[in-house]
Amino acid sequence: MSTATTDFEQFRVFLEKACGILLGDNKQYLVSSRLNKLMEQQGIKSLSELTQRIQTQPRSGLREQVVDAMTTNETLWFRDSYPFEVMKNRVIPEFIKNNPGQRLRIWSAACSSGQEPYSLSMTIDEFERSNLGQLKMGSQIVATDLSSLMLNNCRTGEYDSLAIARGLSPDRLQRYFDSKGAGRFAVKPPIRSRVEFRSFNLLDSYAALGKFDVVFCRNVLIYFSAQVKKDILMRIHGTLKPGGYLFLGASEALNGLPDHYQMVQCSPGIIYQAK
Core-most of 91, 108, 192, 271, by most CB within 10 Å? Predict the structure, then answer.
C-alpha cells in the first residue's frame, strides 16, 4: 500500500469518526480538491500531517475547518419541486385538520447553504396567502448543519446571482428577496424570521431539538454507512410526532424499519409517515 493510500485511509477514519461521512475508495480527488487550499494556507504537506495536526492541536480550529470543507455543498431552491408541492397541498392542510391550535414545527437537517429551509418558509407563505388565517399558531423551521461557517452565511440570508439562478423563479425572486446591489439578493425578513439556524452534528444527541411534525433529511444519508444511516433514521423517528412525515431525497429510499415508518405515495414522489 502506497504512502498516499495509507494517508487517505487515515483521513477516511478521522472523517467518519468526526461526522459519520464515509468516503469511497475512489474519492481521493474529492479530498484533494476540497482541502488543497486549506493545506496550502496551513503549510501542511500531506494528509497524514493534516490528520496528525488535528489530533495534536485540538484547539487550533483546524478540525472544524476540515469538516467544513468536506461537508459543504451548494444546493438548489425548491429542489425536485414535488416535496414543496406535497407540503403545500397535503401535509400542511392535514396538520391543520389534525392539530388545531398547534404550531407547525419543521426540521431541515443538514441544511447546507440555506436554500431548503428558506424554500420551506416561502412554501408556508404561499400556503398562507391562499388559505388566510388557517395556520393560526404559525410555524417554525429549525435548520441545522455541521458547518458553523455555512450557518453564519445562512443567517444573513444573502445570495449572489449565481446561487439565485439555481432553481428560483423570477416571480419568487421578486416576491421574497430584496436586491442589495452588485448582483446580491437578501431573503426578506418575514421569510427569514421563520427559520432558526443551529449548529448540529447528526451523530450527536437529538434530545435538545424537541419534537417535529415534519423532517426534511434530503440527499444527506447517501454519505453514511448502512449502520449509521439506520441509526440516524431511528433517531429522526424519535423526533417525529406520531403521524409526522419524513422527506428523503428523490434518489433515496428507506429500506427496512417497517415498525417505524410507513411509505406514502404522493404521485409524484414518496414520503414516509412515522408510526
Answer: 108
- pTM value? 0.86
Distances from the Cα of 239 to the Cαs of 39, 41, 212, 263, in angstroms?
A: 38, 41, 6, 18
Q: Which helix (H) or strand (E) holds 178?
A: strand 177-181
pLDDT digits (tens, 9 = 90+) for 14-47: 888 888 888 888 788 888 888 998 899 999 998 9
The Cα 168–Cα 81 span in angstroms is 11
CA distance 140 to 91: 15
- Residue 143, helix vs strand vs coil: strand
With the CA atoms of 189, 104, 229 and 261 taken in that order, what torsion angle do they form, in degrees rounded to the nearest 10?
A: -160
List C-alpha distances in Å: 199 to 37, 106, 125, 178, 245: 24, 16, 25, 26, 23
215 vs 207: CA distance, rounded Å: 15
Residue-wise pLDDT for 88-124, tens only, equals 999 999 999 999 889 999 999 999 999 999 999 999 9
Mean confidence (pLDDT) of the chain = 92
For residue 12, the surrounding DSSP H or E stretch is helix 3-19
